[in-house]
Amino acid sequence: MTFSIPNLLSLFRLATAPLLALVFLVPENQNIANIAATALFLLAASTDFWDGFIARRINQSTSLGALLDLLADKLLIVTALLLLLDAERAPVGACIFIVGRELLMSALREWVAQNGKSSTVRVIAVGKWKTGLQMTAVPFLFYAGDLWALNTLAVGVWLLWAAAALSVWSMLSYCLALWRNE
Q: 119: how many CB neighbours lie within 10 A of its CB?
């Protein structure tokens, strides 16, 4: 394995998922847990931008790096959503759409790879917006309190539903692109 900075950032994001569960579930004081989970998630989410940016900037984009990035994103989001569902802060329907899309896309990527059609499952803009909305919604839901005059829980729920809508849209876009190339 190449221990480049982008790959190390993705590995950090992978390792953050179980750590996120610990900082959210273990503390006795829920306010401390909320703040710690919010901060940790924001730190991990920021590495999603930086690993890709650095890899492109120093020309270190690799198939391993792409896989690590994909796995890290999925593990981080699914872990966060499960924790938030358990805390009754995330709407079940939105989580089902988001996780269902991720499972379907993983299966689709596997099928496409086996059939030599990997160019039809490239990242599209709506997929990036979906990820951005998810990464924005989750910290609001972890914080779950008032921030200035803002009810972060309400904002987080709204953003998560928007991310769920984009999840369905991006999934349909990928499926349509695959169908057209079939």
A: 9
